[in-house]
Design brief:
Elements: H1 46-52, H2 58-75, H3 86-98, H4 102-107, E1 116-120, H5 128-134, E2 139-144, H6 147-159, E3 166-170, H7 173-176, E4 186-192, H8 197-204, E5 208-218, H9 223-236, E6 238-247, E7 254-262, H10 276-279
Parallel strand pairs: 1-2, 1-4, 2-3, 4-5
Antiparallel strand pairs: 5-7, 6-7
Length: about 290
């Protein structure tokens, strides 16, 4: 389940110390044809960062470049991701990981308490490692069920100097959601290209602190998808706070960010046993209450 595939390529109030609110992300009109994305050295252009709405410091940019190198290295040993080179890396990995969080990156007060985030189904380390670089004060937990991938991402984090802020857990996320050191502990819980929205909601909501937020990265988002999630969330005692979308650069398609917030503590029944959320998505069984 948490062996996350690469994200699909088809056209898919300010944060405070006490309550991380869903960012009011830019809507991003479709670009009129190809845009300048990478320069002659394969690095993002000024237009790339302007479209994202956030500019990394020099050391952060260098760390992102090193992350690409680490991903190349580990991809020769195991199949972490096909999105490693050129625009695949910078748009489909870095841009797509960071765009929903730009208001948090640009507006968070310097004196704010460190945020605790969890990336469920991190696969090759995204969005978790990109966020760790962009939010240098944050503490991140990355979860995946594939041991070789977890060890590769752990090594990547250490090589990038992130080892003191990035913790790896090799387990199914249903177990993470029932662990005492994870359940109800996170300011932000997120998952990118893991499963259908009701399934992901069942994974993420139990992990949230009372004022935490869940971020679901999605590609296409249709009325039927919304209806499925609307049936699931009352069972988790959560609701949709906002749905935001934008067009990625270079005609890479539409992406959506779904923000969920808890209304009360998640019932102890969730997440259900390993494999059940994926097999029988929450809200799909009319007998659930």
């Amino acid at each position: 389940m948490v062996n996350r595939p690469d994200p699909p390529v088809h056209p898919s109030d300010r944060p405070s110390d006490s309550e991380p609110m869903a960012p009011n992300a830019p809507q991003g009109d479709p670009l009129p044809g190809p845009s300048p994305v990478l320069d002659g050295q394969g690095l993002p252009t000024a237009e790339f960062w302007a479209q994202l709405g956030w500019m990394p410091e020099a050391h952060q940019l260098q760390c992102l470049v090193e992350l690409q190198g680490q991903l190349r290295h580990w991809n020769t040993r195991l199949n972490l991701s096909r999105l490693v080179e050129g625009e695949d890396f910078w748009i489909a990995q870095i841009f797509d990981s960071l765009w929903p969080l730009v208001p948090l990156l640009t507006q968070r007060p310097p004196q704010a308490m460190p945020l605790h985030l969890i990336d469920v189904g991190t696969g090759g380390g995204f969005p978790g490692l990109a966020i760790a670089i962009a939010l240098p004060e944050a503490q991140l937990t990355l979860v995946d069920s594939v041991g070789r991938k977890v060890e590769a991402v752990r090594s990547m984090a250490a090589s990038l100097g992130l080892g003191d802020r990035v913790q790896l857990r090799c387990e199914r996320v249903e177990r993470t959601g029932r662990s005492r050191d994870c359940r109800g502990r996170f300011d932000w819980a997120m998952a990118r290209a893991v499963a259908a929205a009701p399934v992901v909601a069942e994974y993420l909501v139990p992990l949230l602190a009372p004022r935490g937020r869940a971020l679901l990265y999605r590609g296409r988002w249709q009325p039927g998808d919304r209806a499925d999630l609307d049936r699931a969330l009352p069972l988790l005692r959560a609701e949709i706070e906002s749905v935001q979308g934008r067009e990625l650069l270079a005609e890479r398609g539409v992406r959506h960010a779904l923000w969920l917030r808890p209304l009360a503590p998640c019932p102890a029944a969730y997440p259900r046993a390993v494999g059940v959320p994926l097999k029988v998505p929450i809200g799909a069984d009319a007998s659930e209450s």
